[in-house]
Amino acid sequence: MTPLIAGNWKMNTTVEEGVTLARAVAEATAEARGVAIAVLPPFTHLAAVRDALRGTAVAVGAQDVFWEDSGAFTGEVSPLMLRGLCDLVLTGHSERRHLLGETDEQVGRKLAASLRAGLRVMVAVGETEGERDRDETFSVVDRQLQAAFAALGDAPPNGSDVVVAYEPVWAIGTGRTATPEQAEEVCGHIKVAVRAATGIESAQVLYGGSVTPVNAASLFAEPSIDGALVGGASLKAADFAAIVAAAAPAVAG
Ligand code: PEP
Questions:
Q1: DSSP per-residue codes, 131-166
Q2: Total H helices, total E strands in the chain
Q3: Domains of the chain by range and CATH?
Q4: What is the Å distance from ligand 1's center to 53 Cα?
Q5: Is the separation of the CB atoms in 186 and 166 below 8 Å?
Q6: For ligand 1, atom 3, which residue shows the shortest CA distance?
Q7: How many A from CA of 71 to the centre of ligand 1?
Q8: Which protein residue has the closest C-alpha to ligand 1 atom 6?
Q9: How high is the pLDDT of residue 226?
């Protein structure tokens, strides 16, 4: 499976800075082979970043989406509106779940609406520190995945349209990366859970949480980790490119 390295810029950069960063990412990753690359800028940047990346191998994604196609939902952005601006959409990021109260059910509705609109979807799941301490990691990711896929009803998704990002909340933005063993254990579990819920034989599963150029290769060496969702390090083109480069040998070798 081609690894995917996706950069979640979160609420950072102006449009102009975002275009500059996108160009720098394209340039710094131009030699990368056997790795899929995406950047996820804020909604306001999508058109400009899409234009800046035209003709490069760097895809564009959105950080969130709403579950209705149109209507009286002030401030929201629908999957139909994203069509043509990006190919990929993230849903269920822990900052949305924990800071903004997004529910498992809403994540599922966003997944379903985005797939209906022809977008590829990355569903983020992961436990808090307290949940890990209480040995609830598997039950939390199972609950999050089941709720997400339940929203699809009887329509199984195409395997290449769904990516799962395992992001332990305690590792996001903290510098406390999960060990390769911890990440592998949960990513392997997620593949089995996705197969049971959807029939997708081997879903693409990324790890996210304080991935850096220093720890990336050891994470990518694990068999169930098919890439990374990168936050902080995606804002520096050189660091992001080094993470992309760390994923390439995993394919070649
Ligand atoms: C993220 O927010 O998706 C993330 C992985 O952040 P960081 O890499 O900064 O931990």
A1: HHHTT-HHHHHHHHHHHHHHTTTT-PPPGGGEEEEE
A2: 10, 8
A3: 4-252 (3.20.20.70)
A4: 22
A5: yes
A6: 231
A7: 32
A8: 231
A9: 98
Q: Which of 95, 127, 131, 167 is catalytic?
A: 167
Quick one: DSSP state of residue 34?
S
Long-range interactions of 65-73: CB distance < 8 A, separation 24+: 65/89, 65/91, 65/110, 65/113, 65/114, 65/119, 66/110, 66/113, 67/106, 67/109, 67/110, 67/112, 67/113, 68/113, 69/113, 69/117
DSSP 86: B
With a 6 A CB cut-off, is 121 part of the ligand 1 pocket?
no
- In the chain, where do the E strands start and end? 4-8, 36-40, 58-62, 88-91, 120-125, 162-166, 204-208, 227-230
Tell me if residue 93 is catalytic.
Answer: yes
pTM of the model: 0.97
Is the distance from the beta carbon of residue 172 to the nearest atom of ligand 1 less than 6 Å? yes
- What stretch of H or E contains 219? helix 216-220
In the chain, which stretches have pLDDT less than 70?
Answer: 249-253
Interval 181-192: pLDDT, tens:
999 999 999 999
Model confidence pLDDT, tens digit, residues 122-135: 999 999 999 999 99
